[in-house]
């Protein structure tokens, strides 16, 4: 089947390493416009590295990357991409407000020009979408982990991207924020945005996902529709390396 | 006061102090944001080699220091951006090498007097010549234009480099630009506070200001204001008390930091008072097992025993 519109992401035969250790050994990944793709796999399987090659922060040693049909080297339409990194400590060495952090998401729009009224309105809309508008003037360091994650998502949404890339958006997020994230994602998908999600397990986002790509040892082990209910555990050869899956029974017994 | 201002050298000293008071925190805030607060120190060490080369070749030590310091800063940035695990060792070699090389070159040069290197190490603001002041003004204007004019861009790359790359910013170019601005600031501030205390004027006003601020923009504005105030007060004080200006400026800045830190805790409490409406002021519910009650009754109910076992 051919698509008249080029795919949002087209990664072919990607080989990449980090700190001298080979992490990706020939990964193929395609995300069509409007499609929601979940990238699954055990720790160390190369999920995050795949995402970092797509945004260009880990260079490809071999293989090709096209974004919206343009080779990575000549791609300039960055306003079409929203990126939500894995939440580390969102606070830096100097205090910054929620509004200041989210405003950096408008840089592809205003570039070197001053930050204008319509940029400020877009920041307000994105903050309202994740329920953080009333915290706009607060320091990001004063927020909980789930609230910080919502701020990072607002920062990615503020430019109304056509492709949303999220690295473990549900990790360490409380139930209330998980609900907000799922609702936000649903409305973005409804708007027609493509989504590439790194997930540890499908969890509450499962109904939204069109396709799952499972990585193992830097290679694609599965690429197809999500397996209902059972998710990753139903796949042939699944080796149960999730720490929580192994640790849960003994912790309950203790 | 008017007597002090009637001297040409004092007018130049105060002007230089204002310029350095603005530029040092304006650049320093980005280094603090990226948790590289001590980078200015390293650049000060590297600049010593430039001063030494200036003595050897009989050229202006200031411009030679700018050149060497910019080269050093670019090297440091390349080491940092590669994320090499042995990067800190490479930086240590650069810092120590720069300092040792500087002292060696100065001692080899013809005009090696005992005080010649001293004036660059600790600053000698009262000997700022009109030509020096012109150089400080030009370099300072460039630094201010970049660090204030590109605030949103530089904030983005120091806050989250990966995200900044996805917004299409030229991350590598901006990182190099920031490193060069820091190098230029070190050499501009060299005459005022000296190479050994340059970093203090880049860092202390910023960390003092952020005790009381919540936003980056306010921190930048407040730290620049603070930098100007402590620089002017330090130079004025050093004139009246006949003490060196660099240490006076730095000790004053540290005193301001101490006062602001003491003010920060009560201010934060007042700020959070508005947020406590939703819950009780203190925990009112008492856990079931408590104090002496435990010894008398813990054997009676199995629930209690289970609670203690945890």
Description:
The complex is a heterodimer of chains A (254) and B (310). By secondary structure, chain A is α/β, with parallel strands linked by helices. Chain A has one domain (9-253): P-loop containing nucleotide triphosphate hydrolases (Rossmann fold, 3-Layer(aba) Sandwich). In chain A, 28% of the residues lie in helices and 24% in strands. In chain A, the strands form 2 sheets. In chain A, strands 6-7-8-3-9-10 form a 6-stranded mixed sheet, with helices on both faces. A 4-stranded antiparallel sheet of chain A has the order 2-1-4-5, covered by helices on one side. In chain A, strand 1 (9-18) and strand 2 (21-31) form a beta hairpin. Chain A starts with 8 loop residues before the first strand and ends with a helix. The model of chain A is unreliable at 236-254 (pLDDT under 50). Chain B is an all-alpha fold. Chain B has a domain at 2-197: ABC transporter involved in vitamin B12 uptake, BtuC (Orthogonal Bundle). Chain B is built from 15 helices and no strands. In chain B, helix 11 (198-209) crosses helix 12. Classes of the chains: A alpha/beta (254), B mainly alpha (310). The A-B interface holds A 19, 52, 55-57, 76, 78-79, 81-83, 85, 92-97, 99-101, 103-105, 107-108, 112, 115, 137-139, 155, 165 and B 29, 32-35, 37, 85, 152-153, 155-156, 158-169, 206, 210, 213-217, 219.
In short:
The complex is a heterodimer of chains A (254) and B (310). Chain A has 254 residues and is an alpha/beta fold.
* Name of the top-level CATH class of the domain at 2-197 in chain B: Mainly Alpha
Please tell me the overall pLDDT of chain A: 84
Instruction: Label the CATH architecture of the domain at 2-197 in chain B.
Output: Orthogonal Bundle
Task: Give the count of helical stretches of chain B.
Answer: 15
Could you give me the name of the CATH homologous superfamily of chain A? P-loop containing nucleotide triphosphate hydrolases
Helix content of chain A: 25-40%
Strand content of chain A: 15-25%
CATH architecture of chain A: 3-Layer(aba) Sandwich
Report the top-level CATH class of chain A: Alpha Beta
Annotated CATH topology of chain A: Rossmann fold
Number of E-state strands of chain B: 0
Work out the radius of gyration of chain A.
19 Å
User: Biggest interface in this structure?
Assistant: A-B, 33 and 31 residues
Contiguous runs where pLDDT drops below 50 for at least 5 residues of chain A: 236-254
* Helix-strand pattern of chain A: EEEHEEEHHHHEHEEEH
